[in-house]
Give the backbone structure.
Amino acid sequence: MPKKPPAPENTASAADIERAILALNKMAERLWGDGREAEAKALLDALDALNRALDRIRIGESRRAVTLH
């Protein structure tokens, strides 16, 4: 029976992901200011999806913490 692969050693925390999202949001603002609205909108749409995924991760982590105690 195959074993589970080991977890990656350099996993990102929710805070790391949030900082990356904020940095990309600033990039989208600069793109918008440079008149590149289409690129900025595409980036903002992707960031919206990432934020929703991050929320789901946090909800899962909080549920896991509740069930462990």
Observations:
- The mean pLDDT is 83.
- The chain is about 75% helix and 0% strand.
- Residues 14 and 59 are 11 Å apart (CA to CA).
